[in-house]
Amino acid sequence: MAARVAAVGLSSEHAFSKTAAESVRLLEGLGVEGDAHMGATVQHRSRVARDPTQPNLRQVHLIPGELHDELRESGYRVRPGDLGENVTTRGLDLLALPTGTLLDLGPSAVVEITGLRNPCTQIDGFQQGLLAEVVGRDADGAVVLKAGVMGVVRATGPVRPGDAIGVRAPAPPHSPLRRV
Fold this sequence. Notes:
By secondary structure, the chain is of the alpha+beta class. The protein has one domain (4-168): PK beta-barrel domain-like (M1 Pyruvate Kinase, Domain 3). It contains four helices and 13 strands. It has an eight-stranded mixed beta sheet. Strand 3 and strand 4 form a beta hairpin. The longest helix is centred in the middle third of the chain and has 9 residues, at 65-73. The radius of gyration is 15 Å and the shape is globular. The chain starts with a strand and ends in a 12-residue tail after the last strand. The model has no long low-confidence stretch (mean pLDDT 95).
Protein backbone atom coordinates (compact mmCIF):
# COMPACT_ATOMS: atom_id res chain seq x y z
CA MET A 1 0.00 0.00 0.00
CA ALA A 2 1.38 3.39 -0.97
CA ALA A 3 1.66 5.92 1.84
CA ARG A 4 -1.14 8.46 1.86
CA VAL A 5 -2.91 11.05 3.99
CA ALA A 6 -6.01 9.52 5.58
CA ALA A 7 -7.29 12.64 7.38
CA VAL A 8 -6.31 16.16 8.41
CA GLY A 9 -7.43 18.38 11.27
CA LEU A 10 -6.78 21.48 13.32
CA SER A 11 -8.00 23.41 16.34
CA SER A 12 -7.75 27.14 16.90
CA GLU A 13 -7.88 26.50 20.66
CA HIS A 14 -5.49 24.59 22.91
CA ALA A 15 -7.85 21.62 23.00
CA PHE A 16 -6.74 18.00 23.23
CA SER A 17 -8.43 16.87 20.00
CA LYS A 18 -8.40 18.39 16.52
CA THR A 19 -11.46 18.87 14.33
CA ALA A 20 -11.47 17.03 11.01
CA ALA A 21 -11.13 19.28 7.97
CA GLU A 22 -11.42 18.88 4.20
CA SER A 23 -7.90 20.32 3.93
CA VAL A 24 -5.27 22.15 5.93
CA ARG A 25 -2.59 24.56 4.77
CA LEU A 26 0.92 24.07 6.09
CA LEU A 27 2.99 27.25 6.39
CA GLU A 28 6.77 27.05 6.13
CA GLY A 29 8.44 27.56 9.51
CA LEU A 30 5.11 27.93 11.33
CA GLY A 31 2.87 24.87 11.12
CA VAL A 32 -0.80 24.38 10.34
CA GLU A 33 -2.55 27.62 9.43
CA GLY A 34 -5.20 28.40 12.04
CA ASP A 35 -4.01 25.78 14.54
CA ALA A 36 -3.27 26.82 18.13
CA HIS A 37 0.16 25.17 17.95
CA MET A 38 1.27 27.20 14.91
CA GLY A 39 4.36 29.31 15.47
CA ALA A 40 8.13 29.52 15.06
CA THR A 41 8.58 29.23 18.84
CA VAL A 42 6.93 26.72 21.20
CA GLN A 43 3.17 26.91 21.49
CA HIS A 44 2.44 24.01 23.85
CA ARG A 45 1.47 25.70 27.12
CA SER A 46 3.75 23.62 29.37
CA ARG A 47 6.76 24.38 27.15
CA VAL A 48 5.88 28.09 26.89
CA ALA A 49 5.85 28.23 30.70
CA ARG A 50 9.40 26.81 30.84
CA ASP A 51 10.96 28.85 28.01
CA PRO A 52 8.84 30.67 25.41
CA THR A 53 11.89 31.30 23.19
CA GLN A 54 12.48 27.60 22.36
CA PRO A 55 12.06 26.71 18.68
CA ASN A 56 8.79 24.97 17.91
CA LEU A 57 9.78 21.43 16.93
CA ARG A 58 6.12 20.39 17.27
CA GLN A 59 4.45 22.40 14.50
CA VAL A 60 2.72 19.36 12.97
CA HIS A 61 1.62 16.17 14.73
CA LEU A 62 1.28 13.02 12.60
CA ILE A 63 -0.19 9.68 13.72
CA PRO A 64 -0.46 6.47 11.72
CA GLY A 65 -4.08 5.45 11.17
CA GLU A 66 -2.93 1.93 12.01
CA LEU A 67 -2.59 3.08 15.65
CA HIS A 68 -6.28 4.00 15.62
CA ASP A 69 -7.02 0.48 14.34
CA GLU A 70 -5.03 -1.06 17.22
CA LEU A 71 -6.77 1.13 19.78
CA ARG A 72 -10.23 0.28 18.42
CA GLU A 73 -9.34 -3.43 18.59
CA SER A 74 -8.54 -2.85 22.29
CA GLY A 75 -11.97 -1.27 22.84
CA TYR A 76 -11.22 2.44 22.56
CA ARG A 77 -13.26 4.85 20.45
CA VAL A 78 -10.82 6.92 18.41
CA ARG A 79 -11.15 8.80 15.16
CA PRO A 80 -8.67 10.88 13.22
CA GLY A 81 -7.84 14.03 15.18
CA ASP A 82 -9.02 12.64 18.52
CA LEU A 83 -5.45 12.24 19.83
CA GLY A 84 -4.46 15.74 18.75
CA GLU A 85 -2.93 14.92 15.39
CA ASN A 86 -3.02 17.26 12.42
CA VAL A 87 -2.30 14.52 9.87
CA THR A 88 -3.40 10.89 10.02
CA THR A 89 -1.42 8.66 7.69
CA ARG A 90 -1.91 5.20 6.17
CA GLY A 91 0.71 2.82 4.84
CA LEU A 92 3.72 4.48 6.49
CA ASP A 93 5.60 3.33 9.61
CA LEU A 94 6.16 6.80 11.04
CA LEU A 95 7.87 5.51 14.18
CA ALA A 96 10.58 3.75 12.14
CA LEU A 97 11.67 6.90 10.31
CA PRO A 98 14.93 8.57 11.31
CA THR A 99 15.11 12.12 12.62
CA GLY A 100 15.29 14.58 9.73
CA THR A 101 13.18 12.53 7.32
CA LEU A 102 11.31 14.77 4.88
CA LEU A 103 7.69 13.91 4.10
CA ASP A 104 6.25 15.32 0.89
CA LEU A 105 2.55 15.81 1.58
CA GLY A 106 0.25 16.55 -1.32
CA PRO A 107 1.37 18.70 -4.22
CA SER A 108 3.87 20.96 -2.41
CA ALA A 109 3.96 20.74 1.42
CA VAL A 110 7.05 19.29 3.10
CA VAL A 111 7.36 18.32 6.78
CA GLU A 112 10.66 17.43 8.44
CA ILE A 113 10.28 14.86 11.23
CA THR A 114 11.83 16.19 14.45
CA GLY A 115 10.98 13.41 16.90
CA LEU A 116 8.42 11.43 18.83
CA ARG A 117 5.37 12.85 20.51
CA ASN A 118 5.76 12.59 24.25
CA PRO A 119 2.25 11.58 25.36
CA CYS A 120 0.99 12.98 28.65
CA THR A 121 -1.82 12.25 31.09
CA GLN A 122 -4.26 14.34 29.02
CA ILE A 123 -4.69 11.17 26.97
CA ASP A 124 -6.28 9.45 29.98
CA GLY A 125 -8.53 12.49 30.34
CA PHE A 126 -9.77 11.77 26.83
CA GLN A 127 -10.32 8.05 27.55
CA GLN A 128 -9.17 6.35 30.74
CA GLY A 129 -6.39 3.80 30.20
CA LEU A 130 -5.38 5.14 26.79
CA LEU A 131 -1.97 6.38 27.97
CA ALA A 132 -0.93 2.80 28.80
CA GLU A 133 -1.87 1.81 25.25
CA VAL A 134 0.34 4.43 23.59
CA VAL A 135 3.33 4.06 25.93
CA GLY A 136 4.74 0.56 26.17
CA ARG A 137 7.96 -1.37 26.51
CA ASP A 138 9.85 -3.46 24.00
CA ALA A 139 11.38 -6.90 24.64
CA ASP A 140 14.45 -5.26 26.21
CA GLY A 141 12.37 -3.09 28.55
CA ALA A 142 12.98 0.17 26.67
CA VAL A 143 10.09 2.64 26.54
CA VAL A 144 8.21 2.68 23.23
CA LEU A 145 6.20 5.81 22.41
CA LYS A 146 3.45 5.07 19.88
CA ALA A 147 1.52 8.37 19.91
CA GLY A 148 2.96 9.59 16.62
CA VAL A 149 5.68 11.93 15.47
CA MET A 150 6.19 15.67 15.41
CA GLY A 151 7.60 17.81 12.65
CA VAL A 152 8.31 21.26 11.31
CA VAL A 153 7.07 22.64 8.01
CA ARG A 154 9.83 23.09 5.43
CA ALA A 155 7.60 24.03 2.46
CA THR A 156 4.15 25.62 2.32
CA GLY A 157 1.20 23.86 0.74
CA PRO A 158 -2.25 22.36 1.10
CA VAL A 159 -2.77 18.84 2.46
CA ARG A 160 -5.95 16.81 1.92
CA PRO A 161 -7.16 13.30 2.68
CA GLY A 162 -6.10 11.01 -0.15
CA ASP A 163 -2.89 12.93 -0.90
CA ALA A 164 0.19 10.83 -1.54
CA ILE A 165 3.07 10.92 0.94
CA GLY A 166 6.62 10.82 -0.36
CA VAL A 167 9.46 9.89 1.99
CA ARG A 168 13.00 11.27 1.71
CA ALA A 169 15.42 9.89 4.31
CA PRO A 170 18.31 12.07 5.43
CA ALA A 171 21.88 11.17 4.55
CA PRO A 172 23.43 8.54 6.84
CA PRO A 173 24.26 8.10 9.58
CA HIS A 174 20.62 8.10 10.70
CA SER A 175 19.55 9.21 14.16
CA PRO A 176 16.60 7.40 15.75
CA LEU A 177 13.59 9.42 16.81
CA ARG A 178 13.62 10.80 20.35
CA ARG A 179 11.02 12.67 22.39
CA VAL A 180 10.47 16.30 21.45
